[in-house]
Amino acid sequence: MKCISLSFALLLLLLGTSSAAPDGARPQSRFEKTQVLAEAGDRDAQWELAEMYKFGVVVAADDKLAVEWTRKAARQGQMDAQVEMGLRFEAGAGMEASATRAANWFRKAGEQGHLEAQLKLGRYYVDGKGVKRSDRIAMEWFRRAAEQGDLRSQRLLAAAYFEGRGLPRDIMESRMWLEISGAADRPNGRKLREQLNERMSEDQVARARARAEEWRAAHGEPQKEELQSSR
After folding, report:
1. CA distances in angstroms from 1 to 41, 91, 186, 200, listed in the order given
2. Are 229 and 223 in contact (CB under 8 A)?
3. Furthest-apart CA pair in the chain: how many Å?
4. DSSP H helical segments within the chain, as ranges?
5. CA 174/CA 106 separation, integer angstroms
6. CA distance from start to end of the chain
7. Contacts of 84 (CB under 8 A, 6+ apart)
């Protein structure tokens, strides 16, 4: 249901390569240390423990315990765990499916800046899934993702500003986000570029491109498509 998180991948690396353990140390020593921290209330350890139980790493897989530790970490604000709770409620995995509860967990993680949660919540508002349908609120969440460099959200904002969907019609904003996304010269953005060119002067196009360059200077280049979050 989800890719192993970066923190968990690092944990696996430690388990496989640590040279600090004494001779004869059992592989579960790391599990035991994580369990002690988790039981003491460390939210990151709780999340790691949940992943261990989910994937059956150094301990027998146990989805019930995975859910239990995921919930504990999520309630303490561990945002990867919050997204996992959202995904589980969305799919009905280990709990009764509930789009409303899924949306609530995605919102908690999204407010902390979790990119996938922001994308999920944006889609929920577009579809009216677990929330009251609202293009305006959907675009607020997609904007947050776009500001983090998400290409899909940047292209979506470009189209939304052009169409006036959830946002006021604004060809300058539309062209700026199209340029930021790098889609102006690609098949998926060429049609919108042509439509904008019909409505914009050369000076407007130049100013929109300049604003896009200013944005890139402040935020960095958008993420490459293959590096973006996916589950």
Report:
1. 26, 9, 31, 45
2. no
3. 74
4. 6-17, 29-39, 43-55, 63-75, 79-91, 99-111, 115-127, 135-147, 151-163, 171-181, 187-199, 202-219
5. 27
6. 7
7. 2, 50, 70, 74
CA gap 190, 127 in Å, rounded? 26
As a whole number of angstroms, the distance between CA 4 and CA 178 comes to 32
> Can you read off the two tokens belonging to residue 59?
């301990």
Q: Residue written as tokens 């192993």?
A: 4
pLDDT in tens, the chain (231 residues): 444 454 554 444 444 444 344 555 555 578 999 999 999 999 999 999 999 999 998 899 999 999 999 999 999 999 999 999 999 999 999 999 999 999 999 999 999 999 999 999 999 999 999 999 999 999 999 999 999 999 999 999 999 999 999 999 999 999 999 999 998 888 889 999 999 999 999 999 999 999 999 999 999 877 655 434 444
Measured between alpha carbons, how far is residue 185 from residues 179, 200, 203 in Å?
9, 17, 19
Q: Which residues touch 32 (CB under 8 Å, ≥6 apart)?
A: none
